[in-house]
Amino acid sequence: MILTTSSIFLFLIAKLMKDSPQKEINNFIGYRSKRSMKSKKNWDISQVYSMKLMHAIFFKTFLFSLPLLIIDIFLIFNNENIFLVSLTIQTIILFSLFYLVFKKTENKLKIDGD
């Protein structure tokens, strides 16, 4: 359940940010890390690359999570413990995907950035 709703939300944010990435380095909006904020070149690379990754990853995650949502709905009525395990697994998957975006973007900055 959490994976489906988060994936939709993050996909829409990535689409919005991909279509109009942040131009100026800031502490509030966009992909932010020490390396991405090091220079304007790094900032531009990280904004485009991370949002492209998030757009692709979270769209696929949304499609993958639809069957999980149906299973969760049935589990709510049948067994609360299994439902909690499902939510825990989905949360771990969500954080793993954030880590994947972070790691890939940082590697891209190591190769192409300043």
UniProtKB/TrEMBL annotation:
It holds the Pfam family SdpI. It comes from Macrococcus equipercicus. Keywords: Membrane, Transmembrane, Transmembrane helix. The chain crosses the membrane at residues 57-77, 83-102. It comes from the Bacteria. This is SdpI family protein.
